[in-house]
Amino acid sequence: MFFQIEREVTTNPLRPCAWLSFTGMLSTAVIVISLLSCLNVRAQTAPCALKLSQLPASPESFGFHLGMSAEQVKARVPQIVFGPTDDFGVSKTTINPDFDARIDNAAFAGVRTISLDFLDDRVSSLWLGYESSFKWQTVPDFVAGISQSLRLPDAWEPWKSRGSRIRCADFQMTVSIIAGGASFHLIDESAEQTIAARREAKDQETTAEAEGENEIMADKQSKVYYSRACQPATAVKEANRVVFKTKEEAEKAGYKAAKNCQ
Questions:
Q1: Using CB atoms within 10 A of its CB, is residue 1 exposed (0-12), middle (13-18) or buried (19+)?
Q2: In the 8-state DSSP scheme, what is residue 30?
Q3: By CB count within 10 A, which of 2, 34, 66, 197 is most buried?
Q4: Under a CB-based contact definition with an 8 Å cutoff, are residues 67 and 57 in contact?
Q5: Residue-range domain boundaries for the chain
């Protein structure tokens, strides 16, 4: 193609713009590729290696931080009421300075809502929603301000439609706009993993119990099987006992339901 255009330019003096147009397009393409490469490098920014223990206190957190005990939270806000603790050790509570007359609004100026999640009586999730008049009113402004306040690296990424997120060694933070005001959510990833592990263990336990309730016990000697709702008159000897998950499985193995189970 290069030779064809060059030949046309040299043999046809009336078409000098063809080469200029082509070289212009080529230059534009090079610039676009370079910009895309820069954006790709930017998208592959090294992850945040900070840990929760390295985060400093910040005025925007109003004295709250991940890992603080329920007693410490109570000391910070004596009027607080904690929710019930579930089977996984999780409890939740919310503070609304503007709507709770018992709370000193001046101590939480610019804050609309504070939501706390606890794991084993320690804060594992901290969410603060600010009024629209708060000093940082846009996501970029909040990201810039909170990054400086908490000494966070420039490792933020887009989150949902208009928010931003940073994921670090053992925590993550999101920033978004809710009801016209900025908000940020700080999450203890280690706590989240603990909760997930407990839920999975509970699910496995429930499944095992359900399977145990449906187990079919059979007698090798008599070639009959019994369900939980229908037990043999005399205990089957351990040496003759066989367990199946379902009656269909027992029947495929050549066993029949005991007479008192039919």
A1: exposed
A2: H
A3: 66
A4: no
A5: 2-43, 52-194, 214-261
pLDDT value at position 137? 94
Tokens 């060694």 appear where? 169
Spatial separation of the C-alpha atoms in residues 97 and 112, rounded to whole Å? 6
Residue 72's alpha-carbon distances to 75, 199, 213, in angstroms, are: 5, 27, 45
Range 214-261 has CATH code 3.90.700.10: no
Give the start-end residues of each E strand in 39-153: 90-95, 111-119, 122-130
Task: Tell me the torsion sign for CA atoms 245, 247, 251, 252.
Answer: negative
Structure tokens at 258: 């005991």
| Each residue's pLDDT tens digit, 35-65 | 444 444 444 456 899 999 999 999 999 999 9
Element (H, E) at 136: none
**Cβ-based neighbours of 104, under 8 Å, separated by 6 or more:** 97
